[in-house]
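Chain particulars:
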Amino acid sequence: MMNLPRIIDCSMTDCAYNTNKMCHALAITVGAAAPLCDTFLKLGQKGGVKESTGSVGACKVASCKFNNALECVADGVHVGRHADHPECDTFAPR
């Protein structure tokens, strides 16, 4: 069975799942058109599971070398702020 890669850190501190640059969504989805975090949610309250570190549940970026059958196989990922949106900084083209 495959382990989901952990989110090492996330710069999107205004996301509802982010506390102290750590993601607490059980699993995020990385989008298809670009390596955007589709799970990003700007909201007036915090959510997620505080005892859990987020992971990547699905990756729709077929052009990434870490994408294997729409699953991320990187050891871990960094999510960074690019302008006003979150992107997977671990993305690497094939």
In short: DSSP finds no helices and nine strands in the chain.
